[in-house]
Each structure stands twice: as structure tokens, then as C-alpha cells.
Inverse folding.
């Protein structure tokens, strides 16, 4: 599989999870594209996706068709749900996605139903031979003693979940919580078990961790605790549940008896699952290996006893009108037309081959999306000269010039003492030739050719070049704006770092056309220039 495409629904705040998949792709040297779906288009995790897609509400009857259209058009390999509200509907429609070539990482509908109703969940634990506080659904029938616990039978994130001390409190909360269950309150340490199984339900990793500090149902501080009893009990659960991919199981270890009372199953990635990945259970890597039909092995080394603490971080979804003191430009198709460079290179190759008409032939192949050099050399019977032709193309002095509007705005910015930077991907020699011909080697204060940092892994969306320029400029990220033309890679790093950004929707460009996103507002060249002049005045 040359490229793996993942679609996350309900991405919300799942930044750590997306970062885990980024890191897995880097470690495994796999080309992974991350798509994020969101209803409002303001979820912070969207800034960490390669592509963003706006969807209707999960309860909307068009939701599944909406997702199917996205998966079909974007050729999604795997859909990964992240919140409870769409688990059942996705599970019930798995076959529709599989027919268009998209796997859905969700367990079977009957198993999801077990998780969505706390009555069924408790009975399932008992059927697995595990202890569970059995619920009742009628306050008049509760006889389990106090303190007790009341919560919605299909709730999540600890919403409307209350500890009650006596019968009067229980009666009061029973009138406030709809469709509730009541259970005896178990006092003790709370644990989550992060489990990852392959597509057939075979466990690959089982990681228990203590929930040391929790906010709104999500862990803030956790300790990896490789308790043998919990691992054994989790295996018993998996043998009956047969999970597809990640699930999290919650339990309370009674402080008096030491018995593990199981209370909840979430058949998806839990909010704290990335912490188990940091400890060695690298399920993001397992998913990429499974999709590539590679062998997946259980982790050999888990950081037992490691403690992880989490924190919040902000990203800018929509820029305000703060003053800008530095502008960083992309090069190709932002400051000059890249097609002009391609045509210039083709003319140099045609001259080398001894026939000027070959330039038009190469351009024809290029527009058809074919490997131009291979096709032409095959036509004229000179395939053995491919490397020489590529060398001629890359080393030619290109016949290119800047967009006049961009040249004028750069000159104006310099007059205003605004720092000018350029970050460009590509082979070092070719990019340097372009910069020299365009005169940008003298106009720009700082230039970074990402390949020069140490290879193609430093190309955008890698953020290292942006961090280097920010350090050299000695300015906060909030006072820097980035201008680029390629939504698929240009804006990920600036948005994550808190920079402002301008998307130049270049009608002549090779990459800006036809890209949809809920985060990038397209601007004409005139609009880009006007905006730059207004925010630097």
C-alpha cells in the first residue's frame, strides 16, 4: 500500500491520538494521510489533519451517506470513530463501507449495544466471570445500600453521574437523570485497561493503568500498572467480546477486598489511550501494519510504573487582526508560477536531445499526468539517457520571474521593516537556482530549503523549518504570518504553532485547485496582497 488514508470522525480534541499516528508513520516509514471529520469545523484536532471534511450531525439521517461519499471520493482505507455517539450507527453500516473499500474500526453491533446500555454491560462482565456492581433501573427497587451511584444507562464522560449518600439524595437525582441506573458505590482505586486487538478480535496489547486524576471523565494523570490479574481478566473479556481494534475497560479495585469490579466498556480509543502508546503499546503502529498486511507482534517492553500527566494547549482556528512583524512565504506557485519552471526545464531537455519540438511533447505528457521523461525517451529510443535528462532538467538556469504583485508587496513589506522569510521544499540545487534567478536570495532575510536540513523528512508539513525561522526572527508565533498555495501540506505546521496563515488559491497552481477544507479560506492574489498590507501597516 503506497499511501494509507485514515478518516477520524468526531476528532474534537484528539490531538494526542493524531500525533501518535504521525509518529507511527514516521517510525514505520509509511506515507499516511489523516482526514478529520467535524460538524462545526472548529475542532482543534482539525489543525493536525492533512485534510478536513465537514459533516452533518451524527444523528442526522444523512450522516452515513455523507461519510460514504467522503470515503468513496477520498479513497479512505480505514475509518476510526472516536466518540460514543456514532459507534452504533457505524457498526450497523460496516458492510456499506467495506463495499467501497473502506474498513471501519468498530466492533459488531451486538457488542456495541452491550456497551451502550450499562445494564447489559454489567451482565456481560458477570457472564465473563468478572465481578460487577449490578444495576437497577427503578429507585423504589434499589436495595444495595449507600453510598450509591446513579448515572444514565447510556452515558459517557461522567455526564449526569452522581455519588449519593442517602435515600433522599437518590430520590432527588432520580428525578433529574433520565433513563438512569443505580449501583452500589465501590470505594477504591480506579483503573482503565487499554486493549488493542487485530481485526479478528485477537488481543495484541493489554495495558492497565491507574486513573490518578480525572476531569469530566477523562484522565489527567495516570500510572501504568501491569497487574497480572487485570491482564488475565481482560483476556477473558476479549475471548467473548472479540473487539475490533481499540477498546477501553474501566474498573474499580475495592480498597477493602482487592476485588476488581468492572463498570464500563468503550469500544473505541479512550481519551487516555495515547498514554499507553507512550508506555510501549503502540497501537497506531499496529493499525498501519495491519492495513499493510504486515505481521503485528505484542509489545516486548512496557514502561510499568511510568506516570504520565496531560495538559491543554490552544490552536488558532480563525485569525484576528493583530499586527504582523514577519511574513514567511512558500516559493513554488506562491511567488512565481511553477509551470513556468517546468516549461523552462523541458526546453533545456529538448535542446540537449537536439529537437526543440520535444519540449511540447514533454508538456503534453505532463498535462496527461504521465512520467514525461520516461514516455519521451521511450518514444525516441533513448531510454538509457534518463539520468542525464533529469540532471539537465534540474541544473538548468530557469527562465522564470516573480508574480509582479508579489514582488511589489515584498518590497513594500521590507520598507515597513517587516522581516521576510522563505520556506521551500525541493532539491537544494534546483531551489537555489530559482531563488537566485528571482532575486529572492537578496530580498529575503531568511531562507530555508527544507531538504538542506537533512532530507525529505524535513519537508512540510514538518514544523522544524518554521521553528527555526521563529527562533531567528526572535518573534512570537502570533506575530508571524505564512503565505502558501498548497492546503495539503503548507498550513498544518503554522496552525499548530499558532501562526497566522493565508491560503493563495492560485488558479495556475499545481496543487491548490480542487482541495476542500473547513479550515482554509481561499484568497485570490489581490486578496492576499491586500491582507498582507493591512496586517503589517
Amino acid at each position: 500500500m503506497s499511501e494509507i488514508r485514515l478518516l477520524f470522525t468526531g476528532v474534537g480534541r484528539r490531538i494526542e491520538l493524531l500525533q501518535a499516528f504521525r509518529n507511527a508513520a514516521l517510525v514505520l516509514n509509511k506515507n499516511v494521510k489523516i482526514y478529520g471529520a467535524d460538524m462545526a469545523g472548529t475542532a482543534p484536532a482539525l489543525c493536525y489533519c492533512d485534510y478536513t471534511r465537514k459533516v452533518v450531525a451524527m444523528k442526522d439521517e444523512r450522516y452515513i451517506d455523507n461519510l460514504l461519499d467522503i470515503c468513496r471520493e477520498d479513497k479512505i482505507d480505514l475509518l476510526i470513530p472516536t466518540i460514543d455517539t456514532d459507534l452504533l450507527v457505524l457498526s450497523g453500516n460496516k458492510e456499506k463501507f467495506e463495499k467501497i473499500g473502506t474498513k471501519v474500526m468498530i466492533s459488531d453491533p451486538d457488542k456495541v449495544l452491550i456497551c451502550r446500555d450499562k445494564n447489559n454491560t454489567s451482565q456481560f462482565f458477570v457472564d465473563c466471570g468478572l465481578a460487577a456492581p449490578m444495576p437497577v433501573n427503578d429507585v423504589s427497587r434499589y436495595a444495595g445500600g449507600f453510598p450509591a451511584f446513579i448515572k444514565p444507562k447510556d452515558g459517557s464522560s461522567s455526564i449526569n453521574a452522581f455519588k449519593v449518600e442517602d435515600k433522599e439524595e437518590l430520590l432527588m437525582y432520580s428525578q433529574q437523570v433520565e433513563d438512569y441506573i443505580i449501583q452500589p458505590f465501590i470505594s477504591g482505586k480506579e483503573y482503565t485497561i487499554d486493549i488493542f486487538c487485530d481485526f479478528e478480535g485477537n488481543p495484541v496489547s493489554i495495558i492497565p493503568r491507574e486513573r490518578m486524576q480525572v476531569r469530566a471523565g477523562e484522565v489527567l494523570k495516570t500510572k501504568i500498572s501491569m497487574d497480572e490479574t487485570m491482564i488475565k481478566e481482560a483476556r477473558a473479556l476479549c475471548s467473548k467480546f472479540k473487539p475490533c481494534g481499540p477498546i477501553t475497560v474501566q474498573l474499580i479495585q475495592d480498597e477493602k477486598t482487592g476485588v476488581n469490579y468492572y463498570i464500563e466498556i468503550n469500544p473505541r480509543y479512550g481519551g487516555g489511550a495515547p498514554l499507553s502508546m507512550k508506555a510501549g503499546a503502540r497501537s497506531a503502529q499496529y493499525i498501519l501494519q495491519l492495513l499493510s498486511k504486515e505481521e503485528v507482534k505484542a509489545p516486548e517492553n512496557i514502561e510499568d510504573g511510568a506516570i504520565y500527566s496531560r495538559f491543554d494547549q490552544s490552536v488558532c482556528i480563525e485569525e484576528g487582526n493583530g499586527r504582523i512583524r514577519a511574513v514567511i512565504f512558500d516559493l513554488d506557485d506562491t511567488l512565481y508560477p511553477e509551470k513556468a519552471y517546468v516549461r523552462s526545464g523541458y526546453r533545456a531537455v529538448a535542446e540537449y536531445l537536439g529537437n526543440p519540438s520535444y519540449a511540447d511533447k514533454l508538456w503534453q505528457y505532463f498535462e496527461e499526468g504521465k512520467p514525461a521523461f520516461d514516455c519521451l525517451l521511450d518514444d525516441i529510443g533513448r531510454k538509457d539517457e534518463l539520468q542525464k535528462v533529469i540532471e539537465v532538467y534540474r541544473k538548468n538556469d530557469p527562465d522564470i520571474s516573480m508574480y509582479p504583485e508579489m514582488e511589489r508587496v515584498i518590497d513594500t513589506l521590507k520598507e515597513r521593516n517587516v522581516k521576510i522569510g522563505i520556506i521551500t521544499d525541493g532539491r537544494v540545487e534546483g531551489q537555489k537556482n530559482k531563488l537566485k534567478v528571482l532575486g529572492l536570495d537578496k530580498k529575503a532575510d531568511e531562507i530555508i530549503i527544507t531538504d538542506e536540513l537533512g532530507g525529505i523528512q524535513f519537508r512540510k508539513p514538518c514544523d522544524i523549518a518554521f521553528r527555526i525561522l521563529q527562533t531567528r526572527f526572535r518573534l512570537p508565533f502570533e506575530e508571524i504570518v505564512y503565505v502558501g498555495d498548497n492546503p495539503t501540506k503548507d498550513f498544518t505546521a503554522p496552525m499548530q504553532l499558532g501562526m497566522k496563515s493565508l491560503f493563495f488559491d492560485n488558479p495556475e497552481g499545481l496543487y491548490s485547485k480542487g482541495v476542500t477544507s473547513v479550515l482554509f479560506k481561499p484568497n485570490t492574489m489581490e486578496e492576499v496582497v491586500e491582507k498582507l498590507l493591512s496586517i503589517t501597516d
Summary: The longest strand covers residues 203-215.
